[in-house]
Structure formats: C-alpha cells, structure tokens
Amino acid sequence: MSEWMSLETPSGRIRAWLAKPHVPPRGALVAVQEIFGVNQHIRAVCSTFAEHGYVAMAPALFDHFEHDVQLDYDPDGVQRGRALVERLGFPRALEDIHAAAAQLQEYGKVGVVGYCWGGTAAYLANTRLSLPAVSYYGARTVPFLDEQLDAPMMFHFGEHDPSIPQADVELHRQRHPEAEIHVYPAGHGFNCDQRGDFHRPSAELALDRTLGLFHRALRPAY
C-alpha cells in the first residue's frame, strides 16, 4: 500500500511517497524528511504510521533541484544535505507541506511530523499553517520560538544531542509551556535505525507519545 505519487506545489510538480493503511484511515500525516531526502528511513516512517491507521505522505522536497536524492548518513551526505536545505529554504518547504496537507484532506484531519531539519519545518507548519505537529530533534527551531503555536505541538529531544544543548530545550519549555516536550537518554537521530545514535527504547516511547497526540488532535469531532 505504498507508492510514489505526483504532488503539485506552487513551485512545480514534485514526487511524494504515500503509504496507506489496510483499514479506514483515522486521519493523515505529512512526514517531513531529514536533510538526507526521502530515503529508506523516511519511507519506513510512513509505513509505520500507516500500520497505525494513518495515511502518511513524505514530499520529496529536493525534487525541486534533483530527482531521487537519498543521501548516506556520513560527512559527505551531511555536507550535501545541508547545502540542499539551504537552497530550498523553509518558505518553499512550507508551501510543499501545505500542498501535501491539502491533498490529504480527503482522508480526514491532517497533522505533520518531522525529523531533524524536518522537525523545525514541522514546528513552522504548526505556527504558520495551523497544523498539529510533532518535531523530532529539530535543531534549527530556536530562532523561531517567538512564533505562536496554533495547534497541538510535541517536541522530542535527545539528552545527549550535541546539536541541541539542554539550554535550547529549556528555551522551548519557556517559550511554549503549552507544548508537550520530552527528553530521552539518547543522542541526535535516535529514531533512525540507520544512525549510530539509534536508540530503540527511546524511539518506541517517542512513537507511542506521537501517536497519542495525533489520536487526540486528528480524531473526528463527532
């Protein structure tokens, strides 16, 4: 029940990976990639959410520049991925997220979940697009913390993440006391089993909490 599809955005057509559940969907999620593209990990994330009843779509944001970007978790991949997200920018990424969310509305209410760079994009989808969102270890969020949340919000952080000091986590708590903020005994990228910092107990607990937020935020009003 997973396939590549076409997604029309204000900046042109891109691809998106779509995973559907085998049961009537309880809502839909836009899954926002790391700097490494819509790779095996992000596609697996979509499958996991589909297994829990959600239609999940991951827009291939780098398709604006290059087709089928899937980078390795190594220094070369990091360098290239950082260059691509700088070229993309958050405004265009949010246009793509908005386009994906609009297409997913046929399946019910829509939320956003993002990882690493995508975690910050998910936060901005909350403040600027009013979508319920979950951010996994978004290291670029601090400059935007004065923006007001406009939907339920959850943050996941690793206690040993060198890119997100605990002082930055505390800033999230101070600026957004209404958000759910969780810290795990793990490093950066603990949800990804292709990274050295993968920590299964933290990933499983974070998923449980993420599903709880979306269950509350996306369930029908009736």
Architecture overview:
Helix content is 37%, strand content 21%. With 222 residues, the chain is α/β, with parallel strands linked by helices. An 8-stranded mixed beta sheet has the order 1-2-4-3-5-6-7-8, sandwiched between helices. The protein starts with a strand and ends with a helix. The mean pLDDT is 97.
User: What separation lies between the terminal Cα atoms?
Assistant: 28 Å
Shape: globular
Q: Count helical runs.
A: 6
What is the spatial order of strands in the main beta sheet?
1-2-4-3-5-6-7-8
Instruction: Give the uncertain stretches in residue-range form.
Output: none
Q: Which range best describes the helical content: under 10%, 10-25%, 25-40%, 40-55%, 55-70% or over 70%?
A: 25-40%
Structural class: alpha/beta
Please outline the major beta sheet: 8 strands, mixed
Residue fraction in strands: 15-25%
Written as H for each helix and E for each strand, in order along the chain, the element string is EEEHEHHEHEEHEH
Q: Count every beta strand, where a strand is a DSSP E run of 2 or more residues.
A: 8
Mean pLDDT: 97
Rg measurement, Å: 16 Å
